[in-house]
Design brief:
There is one protein chain. By secondary structure, the protein is mainly α. Helix content is 88%, strand content 0%. It has one domain. The chain starts with a helix and ends with a helix.
Length: 142
């Protein structure tokens, strides 16, 4: 085998290795983008659920005290939904060209936000339960 043949084989091996690495990075990028879309869907669903449950809790409170104000909760949910829209726009406009490091950073932030929303959901559930208990005990005649 000549030196030229050996060099050609080495060059072909390097090119094949680079192509395989690029393909694997591309698959990783697609997987990461898919996960970001799933996180966005999940967070939007959670926010809409929280808004619905918060509205229901406010309706219960209004039955007890007609002076109750839900503006802070509604404002917080509206702000979170606007932030969610900004996430969707970022996904649509920038995610495909963003470096992998930025995508990973966004994924970590969105995962943390999802955990926070889950905690908010649990806290709201606890508050709703306490509200129902208080409402029942206020209605019961002694």
């Amino acid at each position: 085998m000549s030196i030229a043949s050996i060099l050609l084989l080495v060059v072909m091996a390097v090119v094949a290795s680079l192509a395989a690495a690029r393909l694997l990075r591309g698959r990783g990028r697609l997987r990461l983008l898919r996960e970001l879309h799933q996180l966005a869907d999940r967070q939007e669903t959670m926010l809409r659920d929280l808004r619905s449950r918060l509205d229901a809790a406010h309706a219960e409170i209004a039955q007890i005290d007609d002076r109750a104000d839900d503006s802070s909760g509604a404002a917080a949910i509206a702000a979170a939904l606007r932030e969610q829209l900004a996430h969707r726009l970022w996904l649509r406009d920038r995610a495909a060209r963003a470096p992998l490091a930025e995508l990973r950073s966004v994924r970590a932030a969105w995962r943390a936000r999802a955990r926070s929303l889950e905690q908010d959901s649990v806290a709201l559930g606890d508050a709703q339960h306490a509200l129902r208990q208080a409402h029942r005990s206020a209605i019961r005649p002694d």
